[in-house]
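re: ur question from earlier - yeah i can do the single chain one, its not a big deal. heres the input i used so u can compare w yours
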Amino acid sequence: MSLQKKLSSDVLVTVLVRLGTRFQGLIFIPLIGKLLGLAAYGAYVQIIAITGLLATVLDLGLHSALIRYGQEESQDVADLYYSLTAFAVACGSLAAILLMTFSTSLSELTLGNRQYAEALLIGSTLVPLKVFSGMARNYFRMEMNTKIYSVIEAIRSYASIGAVALVILYLNWELEGVMTVLVAIELALGVGIQYLIGRKIGYTIPSFQELERCLRYSIPLTGSMIASELAAQADKIIVGSFLGASAVGIYSISYSIANFISIYSSSAYTSLFPEISRLLENGERERCGNIVQTSVRYYIVIAVPSAIGIYLVGPTVIRLISTPEAAGPANALVPIVGLGIILLGLERLYELIPVADEDTVVISKIKGVAAVTNILMNVALVPVYGITGAAVATVLSYGASSVLVYRESNIRVKTRFPLVSTVKTAAASAVMFVVLYSLLNRNLLPSLVVGPLVYFVVMIAIDGIELAELTEVI
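and the output i got, formated as tokens:
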């Protein structure tokens, strides 16, 4: 299989898998929000945000170092994997102990009361478990087996959906029970993946010989990941601090709907990073530029009409999955958050080249400044404009960082922003909007069928995309 075919296949499989797994967020809205209450859903989101942020911090970016340096032919892969995993899990365990110690204070600080301290205490064990299973999953990315990585992600999501549905619908457990089963699934997943890896490369006592080199690469990248996670989660934490758990629930519902736009960019990054690293290691810079440029073009072709489609059908979806209390405010936020998600996707794709080129410091600086700016704007805007202020702050910070990351990427490998293709995409999306809004009146099921059909027919008619391209991708 050619490189282009392999990458297209990997991205397509990852997109399809993540499309399915993204429904986990939507399904949890009625499961937790309607049955346990909007405040419980907000608390759940906050706990996942806190543990996810800590897992990102304490992972120290070592999963990226595993992928990057695992490409070297002289590398002892088993020692590299076990050394990095052992160190990262130890750091994650320390964070879990601290989180357990201060769970009551954190519940009061981030959710306005101590009611959810026990759920936070249970959820704290997710930190080292997420680090462990994350390192194990990324072993397959290092081997460029992205499809296996994606299937594991799907198993994790569907197991979580089934287990949470079971404990809420049939066992009548509260939020503490939800966190317990999520912890159990993360543990089982990590152990299961480790068993598969152990059968393949065996087991060895880590030497930590490559740890210093990997940390020099990954610690600046950790700063970048922390900043990204802060930009993604700080708004929810600030909303919770100022407005309470219910407001977090409303904001998170709109975010879950709009976040479907990010499926292609996150899937492309997952699939392309190992290959971009290998090509840069071999000095094939021009080829890297072509891959990133093509990926950005496809992303825009997918993301812009997706944002419009989500805006049109979002109100219907939100009414189906949420409470009347949340539907109105969440509807208004979807288009604002959607714009921010589009900008974040562009940043993520252009980030591929500097990170694979081992220049993680500059990306960390850009994202750090963007995250601090985002936090300051949230603190200023949320008390005055509520959750709308949080959405606007996110758009502005993502927009600034995407421009700066594009500039840094272009310094290293020349790429052209697909301006002509973007204009054609906007035109075809506008036609789709008119058809769906005026003729179908936002009717959900017909819109899901007619919308993509109208869009791609117009795109083909104005040479925005060719049938041969679709055939090549598929």
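Residues 285-321 form the longest helix (37 residues). not sure if urs matches, ping me
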